Amino acid sequence: MTHRDRLGFRFTESADDYGFRLAPRAGFFLWLVFIVNSIGLLAAIWFGIRTPVSVKAPFTGTMEPRQVHKVFPAESGSLTELRVQPGDRVAAGDTLALVAVTEAPANQRVTVRQSPLRSPHAGTVLAVAGAAGERVTPGASIVDLADLEHLVLVGWVPEFYRRRLLVGQEALVKFPIYRGHHFRGAVLRIAPSAQIVQGKSMYEVRLDVTPPEYATGESGAAAMPLQPGMNAAGDVLADRMPALEYLIAVRMLHRY
To answer: Which CATH architecture has domain 68-146?
Structure first.
């Protein structure tokens, strides 16, 4: 194409004045490389979001006795003496209280005998009910006992993770009071139905926590006793699921 400049001189403009021109084969090759790379990138993204990832089911909970035993009087009567108070340790067979039982057979003299309330096993007294002189019946417990040497972690897991949980799965447990230390746990029991906790549908999960002497952390192993009422949080190492589904679920859980 021919042009004139301001002084009237003529010059010719070509495509080479603005850079180099690619041969048809070179252009085709670049387009082919672009298409192949795009397909590879899309395939990588597709397989990445479909690849199963390990699911960590978060939970919060507290340490509780594995089982609380309520001790009931065998007969109705009057509570004569209460020999224990919360915090006391008792052995199996120890007398916890005395109950005065009145007997009045027909046409016979009325008698009163002392019926001892004995501990069915060793443990720690958690609570007592009643005071001397009060009426007691077999339907109301007088003493609550528990073995505080063997506790269980009662945690709550969001409903979304329920179908991924199995008894026996491992868990990583952390206690705020023992900052920097990690305890190992295992799922003992999963509740059959959900409950509403703080406005959310949650499943109760009971976990066995590894004894403190096996705990490891930044400061090394130490004797770290666990007591009822201690708060805990952690993750159950649950089943595997597609990465995209897991990411969407986590976003939804954090949003609500």
So the answer is: Beta Barrel (2.40)
